[in-house]
Every structure is written in C-alpha cells, then in structure tokens.
Design a protein that fits this description.
Cytochrome Bc1 Complex, Chain D, domain 2; mainly alpha; two-stranded antiparallel sheet; globular
Length: 284
Amino acid sequence: MNKRQARLFAIASTAVATVAFFGLTLDSHRQFGRLTNASAITDQVTRGKDVWHDNNCINCHTLFGEGAYYAPDLTKITQLRGEAYLRAYLKDPAKFYDENRHRRLMPRQDLSDGDIGDLIAFLDWVSKVDNQGWPPRPLLVTGATFPGTDSSAGKPPDAGSVAAPAARPTSAADDPIALGEAVFRTAVPACTACHSTAPGVNMAGPSLAGLAGRTQVLLAGSEYHGGARDVAAYIRESVLTPSVHIVPGAMYSADGKSFMPATYPASLKPEQVEHLVAYLSTLK
C-alpha cells in the first residue's frame, strides 16, 4: 500500500467510524425514554432521588455500577427484597445486622415514613430500568456465596472442605430435584437472593441447610400452627403462603407478616413449585 492508498484508507475508515458513531448515538437517544422507563418517573420517584442524594447513600452503595462499592449494589433491591422488608430495614437497620458479627452496619438515618416511601419508589423505578442485565451477579450480602466459593471470604474451598448441602451434580432434565434446584436459582426473585444452603449462613432469610430435619422437629412440636402435616407440605406452604408460619427473628418479619415474597403463586407454575419442594426436601 503506497502513501496515497494509506491516506485514502485512513480517510475512508474515519468517515465510516464517524457515521457509525453518530448513527449509534442517535439510535441510543431514540430509545432512552423506553430504556430508562421515563414514563414512570413520578413526583414520588423524584422525591426519592432527592432522599437518596441528601443522605449520601451513594457514598456506600452503587446504582448501575456507580457508587462507592463499600455496600451492596441496589440496582435490583426492590425486586430482591420487597417493600415490607425495605421499610423495616430503613427504620432500624440494627435489627437486621450486628456490627460485631458482620463488621459493617448501615447507619440509622432516622428517615420519616414519607421519606422511606419515596426512597423505595425511587429504587423501584431504578430496578425497572432496562440496564442490559446489570448487575451481572446477585446482590452480595454478608455470608452470601457463589458456586465454587466458601462462605467465609468468597475464596475457593480447600481440598478437604465439606461441600454445602445439595452441592452435588444434578443435571438430568427430567430429574425433579435438578429442576427444583434450577427454580431455586432462577425464580423471580431468586431464592438464592435471600437464602443460603450453607450451614449457619443467614442472609435476608434463614439458611435452608438442614431444612428437612428442622421441619420434622417443628411439626412435632407445639409452636407450629399452620396446616402442614409433613415436610413437603410445609415447604409448599412456606412458598405459597409464607405468613402462615413466621420464622422467629426480627429480620424475617414485621407486624406478623413474613418478608418472604407472596408473589410465587402467580410467578411459578404448579409443577415448578413441586420441583422446588422436591429439591428443598433433600436439604437434610
């Protein structure tokens, strides 16, 4: 390629890149309203944004990857936790996490009920923005784990470590336990967003390790007042009508209502519920 050809190639490449850049920019602006859910920006959402900024939430948390990365990303928090949980948490975070055990504690902001409602409305708007799958992994809280890591520090387990319950190969497409484990990870919201299957790892919900054994003891005692008579029925009841039996602990319920989402009867098909029951019944 001589100098003249090289110059023409550079000019043509620059022209093509410029046209592509402006084309993509115009196309992005054309879609911003839909992608950002702009039609859902109400006065309450705007007030909630002001609460977010006035209390410097971004100094610890992130939205769309922007923030301090000290505390969990809250882009999808309303879908993962729900309004009842968030209201109780924002009123008194100390009821949920202990600074000595968890090393961090969200400061109590003394927000009014109105400010809390506005902030939740803002976060709910954020959760419905089309952000192309961000964040790329689930909300991370103290004790949360990802496949291939232990629960203490997010490090690969030692060769002699014991695998968490149900951390076994389950790949058969017609195996109800395998299908139930898939539901556990992919339901909306995913069960893994609040529950661990590792012993002693309590997240927004209690650890499900040993669930079957604990349930048998519960059903045989006098503290259970639901309608289940066996482990499978209890798990099914907990998924579909979670407030029938309240698990003790301030971080799991408020005013006699469980923080467990009550949306699974609508979002899960009956066979998915049965697959989930089959999987959770193996956690002995």
